[in-house]
């Protein structure tokens, strides 16, 4: 399985990595005490570690290549297992029913902590689905999605703080304000394409955060707003556990609602216009699609969902400050969309669950968890660049009579 | 008037700093169309390597000039090695993948490298040895322009001149331009595209490392997180000037540096980044491909 | 000179070449004709090493080249003018020609070859300092061919040189193809949709359909073949 | 099929939750929460070390009232939204007391969860005045004085001792720095003795601060009062010296850290910073630093002594109260004095440590010297 040549390459690669990591892994200096620490053990570890990883990767490649040669003829019909499974209506109902039951009893089986992080994960599912409208469907790369999230969160925090408005009253307001922000951003950037759009949205996200940070009179600045009310249930105040439970069910309902809407959108005129716009703008305009309106609709709808989640975020943590709305957050939401599989609803859900729950369960690794997180992002992209669940293109079959 | 000149000079030195990092961004973008988010981390690794080497050498008692030269070479060598390896691991397998995949891979790589340095070294800030001493002859104007400002400025100018020469007139430069414009055709005329892309990463990383050394010496400290903001700003500058264009990256960097400096001086540093990003939006509104960027011609 | 034996190649899950075998003798002009999407361009890209050959063998001067990288293949003397010309738009005409001679180091000879292509296409000499992207379609085709000639190829692969050009220009281009073949003894493998023109200058021809060679023979025979006439010549 | 799936899922959920429920309460669970990864890790990790040192010592001596102390370390990256998860996790695991969190924002987000579970939280570093003064968090205490107290000390020093009339107030736009700066500005203006000629934030992590330094010079300030942490402070002071700007530099506890002197080097000479009263000669403090050197081989980092003291104070309260009940613990904290590296301390009703005060230090010959 491993030829001598592979092994030799492996040794060479591990030597390369020993060289590469040499200054950072082996030497540690204290410039004031003027001490040099030589940690030769690390070099050894890097060498052996690289060699083992190399062997594993080789083994995986070997297996991939020596699988029975892919049935090239009918690969077009090759659809992921999940999609095949869902395609059957009875199985689909069973699956969804089962998932719903699991979702419903989940908080009673597990600890509050598990429920709490599940709420976070569900929020990211919805955020991912929202961004999926912009990036996945309409093909507009948005690196500042978190700005709309912030708009929603601050809407609730401020309205609650100053006017005592409740969660349910602010929910539509927050979504609406975020949607308006989406349109405001959308107007100037409509002409930009691809990466220029990406950097402008990134800039916009940073501008919103910086304004929140610096305009203390308005947003209380970096110290944030605390004691935001949790959502009340029919006017009752809930205990912490009760309110976490309540939030959980709100989020489940929200997720189902979002999936429903996004699913309908995909098949609507607007959804098709987005997909067409993503594929070829000029052809689209030639077909009479209003580019401006269609793009704005994507921006504002995506932003609307981010706004709603912002309100829920503020209600859940009861404290917000601008530090929660950094670029890294946008990057994580984008990673959810891409990792799950662009444009695929199931993919986004799985992507969110993995990316949000993973760092939580990686807590055991404590300081290594962000290292692992970064490595997993890279590895996932290398081994499955189309995402975990690739979108299934709608196919129409020509029936021969 | 003095105040204006002072602000102008700090703007220039800030711009020169951004330019050293932005050049790498723009080269990589030009050739493979990828926003290399890990570039800021390469800059950080370059700074860290030069910190380690310089400190070791100074403990061993080498003279200053030798320390500067050796730590500069070490930073460039290792940063290039990292750039080369990162391209091979995280981007090369994704050349034919959907457009967003390499971007996510780059973000993952950036997170990985930050935490790698955090774990391998320390989360603390470390004092960077002063590699650029105060020059005597600068003393009369030291209150406006410091020695390190001048060194950074001259380095940027030299780097840009050399780079422009290389890209315009040498064999490898022409191959780079050809690869950037049409990769398939470059292969068909016998250019080894993989080697050219590696070379681009190596040159870009070496520049970032030199930048890392100079900037760290200028502000006197480093830690594992310095690459993030510097990277984003340099990227902004590269886009401002028209990403993919080398003079554009330098021009964009100076405009960004001056804007920030004047915004701080005449308005408030609270909003310096707001000004920077607003300027970016404004310029892109009127020139959607940046100041010196080539307009994307669309085939209909 | 060039032999393809049961070559399979494709993109992702799609197999564009199912089973292609053909051979080209030194000094010949061979043409490959076929409809849109039949696998003509893929055949050329596979020979050039841009598309990976999944199975089968490609022999050039009795050496296997299907595993070699594209720059090595160019080094061995196979040069391609791809479909749609692929001029480097922001390089000048002269720089484009320099790129053609990328792998060569003999300055004097390069200069000679450049003069030669300028004599073939005098219009290029006039525009030598103009950006490639500013040329007209016909001029771009001339430039693309000249660029390939700059590598002094033994085998020149031409992919639809007539595409999108005016009839007069097409005629000129085909004249020059013949001229190149004669003057330099350069073997030419010509892929065309314009079957009529191609078969008129070629020695032999192949017909490709759905990734498989369905017909082969001397060009004259193909021109008189009824099937070919019906499908490709519009008679 | 459906049933099987469901059972499997249920079993899985149970498997996750079992270890939580299964651990019995025969140990004292001591939580440590704060930033242990990310860009603020250098403020959180020393706290973990402090807790490790103290708890190892306590356990070696047979624990507290026969119970061993178990350490639960959780990262919150200093982000409010992560802090709520961290807190819920610690509470789910049955934590008894928590040392943390590090940042005020994260602390504010996490406290309601601990409050609900009746868990005592003591922070070595969260200085936002609201945390104790608002009265909303009865389960909170800290071994560091709040920002306003610190700002007051600095302002009084600048006005009365140094006698400045024109002061530029600069901050790092952060929670801590801006809070401090706003208090400083307020006290300066209220005093009527001095003018605040500049009030601005700098961007942390920026590559160059020369523009703001030029602006300070232009404002004609006699001194800069800086709110924020040492990395920015050393950059600003370095840049001021580079630009030959000779004004005094007064700062806060985030700067009164040996790293500041290490990083800023000779530029730091003469700078003022307020910090907890000098305890370096306190034998307990010397001992704590020695222990850190022995266990980890390095000098301790930021807030190490505050964390060490908080650990001692909480364990002492548990010992004296012989319980982990919140009310009993609070009572013990308020009545039982405890010897710690930061002095002999006890706590007031709001949770602020008494006996923890501020003094102003100046860097002299590469060391902070109490004035």
Oligomer: heterotetramer
Order of helices and strands of chain A: HEEHHHHHHHHHHHHHHH
Query: Number of DSSP strands of chain A?
Result: 2
Order of helices and strands of chain C: EEEHEEHEHHHHEHEHEEHH
Shape designation of chain A? globular
Q: Which stretches of chain C of 5+ consecutive residues score pLDDT under 50?
A: none
Signal peptide (chain D): 1-24
Pfam family, one (chain D): Peripla_BP_6
Organism (chain D): Desulfopila aestuarii DSM 18488
Family (chain D): Belongs to the leucine-binding protein family.
In a few lines, what is going on in this structure?
Chain A: One of its GO terms (cellular component) is plasma membrane. The complex is a heterotetramer of chains A (401), B (300), C (235) and D (371). Chain B has 300 residues and is mostly helical.
How would you describe what is shown here?
The complex is a heterotetramer of chains A (401), B (300), C (235) and D (371). Helix content of chain A is 72%, strand content 2%. Chain A is mainly alpha-helical and 401 residues long. Chain A has a two-stranded antiparallel sheet. In chain A, a hairpin with a 4-residue loop joins strand 1 and strand 2. Chain A starts with a helix and ends in an 18-residue tail after the last helix. Chain B has 300 residues and is mostly helical. Chain B has one domain: Orthogonal Bundle (ABC transporter involved in vitamin B12 uptake, BtuC), CATH 1.10.3470. In chain B, helix 2 (39-59) packs antiparallel against helix 3. In chain B, 66% of the residues are buried. Chain C has 2 domains: 2-77 and 155-233, P-loop containing nucleotide triphosphate hydrolases (Rossmann fold, 3-Layer(aba) Sandwich); 88-152, no CATH class. In chain C, 40% of the residues lie in helices and 28% in strands. Chain C has helices at 40-47, 70-76, 93-100, 107-120, 122-126, 137-149, 167-184, 195-201, 219-224, 226-233; strands spanning 2-11, 14-24, 29-34, 53-60, 63-64, 78-81, 155-159, 187-192, 204-209, 212-218. The model of chain C has no long low-confidence stretch (mean pLDDT 89). Chain D has 371 residues and is an alpha/beta fold. In chain D, strand 6, helix 7 and strand 7 form a beta-alpha-beta unit. Chains in contact: A-B, A-C, A-D, B-C, B-D.
